[in-house]
Structures are given as structure tokens and as C-alpha cells.
Design brief:
The chain is an alpha/beta fold. It has a single domain (about 5-200), classed as 3-Layer(aba) Sandwich (Rossmann fold). The chain has helices spanning about 1-15, 25-30, 40-50, 65-70, 85-95, 110, 130-140, 170-185; strands at about 55-60, 75-80, 100-105, 120-125, 140-150, 185-190, 195-200. It has a seven-stranded mixed β-sheet with strand order 3-2-1-4-5-7-6, sandwiched between helices. The longest helix has 17 residues, at about 170-185. It starts with a helix and ends with a strand. One of its GO terms (biological process) is tRNA methylation. Homodimer. GO terms for molecular function: magnesium ion binding; O-methyltransferase activity; S-adenosylmethionine-dependent methyltransferase activity; tRNA (uridine) methyltransferase activity. Pfam families: Methyltransf_3. Its EC number is 2.1.1.-.
């Protein structure tokens, strides 16, 4: 069954159309072991972000700006990165591709509440143990009809499993509690592909 899922994932990746201009960034991430969004999850995210009613996007966890540059094709982006080295690489990448992206080097937990804008699409892909705190702050900045896209919410498929390294116990438990919280209180769906994607839609009313 696992082999079939892997085959299906590899098959789906064949249909992702890489932006040739961004392959250099992708290769850099792979070579330097910088975690970036997988092709199939990126393809799905862009499908959702390409909405005529969505104008402004927020990203929590820039890394080196790979997903940011893709999202900037459809949205006016603000993105937050806590790591200074990654921030500097992202800044260089944005300048190289002449993208007017609002890049912030800080802890998102200190920044989100003070942002002047509200957003239509929010992408969370940062410290997994802080996902609930990120979400609560982001939801307050989400426009009606807007969407929050949460990546890696199943954390290496450990969430929902009784078998995982003890060192990840806190993260796994927090994510499990977070998913239950979302399911009980929001318009939420959990999609078990990639490393798990959570979607929260804010009602129009």
C-alpha cells in the first residue's frame, strides 16, 4: 500500500511544471539541505492561491524564498523568516528576480499581530511546535472568504501513529491537539498527502 502511494506521488510530480527561472533556487535548497515545499503540494497550493478574489498573501517561514516566488505570481506577498542566514539568501533571490516582496527578518510570533494588512491567502510552514500560536494570530489577519494553508501538519506521518522517536513526542502531541482544535472550531479539512496539508477557510458571513 505504501509502495502504491509512493508510485502515485512520483506520478503526480511528473505533471508539476517547474518555473525554469526558479530551478536554481530549488537546486540550491536540495544541495544545502534547506527544506522546501514538495512539487505536488506546491502545485496544489498554487491551484488554490490562483483565485481572482485573492490579492494579498502572507507566508510564515520564508526559508530561501522558493515558495514565496511562486506565490508572488498571484499575490502581493509578505513573508517572515526568523533565521538571518536564510533571510539573506531569500533577499538576494527576490532582488535577482525583481520581485517586490515584503520580506521580514523576525520571529513571526512577534510580527503578525502588528502587520498593517489583512490577507486573503496565508501559508504556514515554520516551527511545527508553534503551529497553533501561528494559526491563532494569522486567523485574526485573514479576510472573509480567505484560506489558510498549513503544510507538514502530519509531521513525517508521525501524527496519528503510535510509533515515532521519543524526541518528537512534544511536537507530535502538539500537532495532534492542534488538528483536533481546528476540526472542532473551524471550517477545516485535513488532506493526507505530502507530509499532510491542513486547510482552513474563513466563512464569507
Amino acid at each position: 500500500m505504501i509502495e502504491n502511494f509512493t508510485n502515485s506521488t512520483n506520478y503526480a510530480r511528473k505533471f508539476f511544471k517547474d518555473d525554469k527561472n526558479l530551478l536554481e533556487i530549488k537546486d540550491y535548497a536540495i544541495s544545502n539541505k534547506v527544506p522546501i515545499i514538495t512539487d505536488e503540494v506546491l502545485s496544489f497550493m498554487l491551484f488554490l492561491a490562483n483565485n481572482k478574489d485573492y490579492k494579498k498573501g502572507l507566508e510564515i517561514g520564508t526559508a530561501i524564498g522558493y515558495s514565496t516566488l511562486y506565490l508572488s505570481k498571484f499575490l502581493e506577498m509578505t513573508t517572515i523568516e526568523i533565521d538571518e542566514n536564510r533571510y539573506l539568501v531569500a533577499k538576494e533571490n527576490f532582488e535577482k528576480y525583481n520581485k517586490n516582496i515584503n520580506l521580514i527578518n523576525d520571529d513571526a510570533l512577534n510580527v503578525i499581530e502588528n502587520l498593517n494588512d489583512n490577507f486573503d491567502f496565508i501559508f504556514i510552514d515554520a516551527a511545527k511546535g508553534q503551529y497553533k500560536r501561528f494559526f491563532d494570530l494569522c486567523y485574526g489577519k485573514l479576510n472573509k472568504g480567505g484560506l489558510i494553508f498549513i503544510d507538514n501538519i502530519l509531521f513525517r506521518s508521525y501524527v496519528g501513529s503510535n510509533e515515532y522517536p521519543k524526541k518528537f513526542k512534544t511536537i507530535v502531541n502538539r500537532l495532534d491537539e492542534f488538528i483536533t482544535y481546528l476540526s472542532d472550531n473551524y471550517n477545516f479539512t485535513l488532506i493526507p498527502f505530502g507530509d499532510g496539508v491542513g486547510l482552513v477557510k474563513r466563512e464569507e458571513k
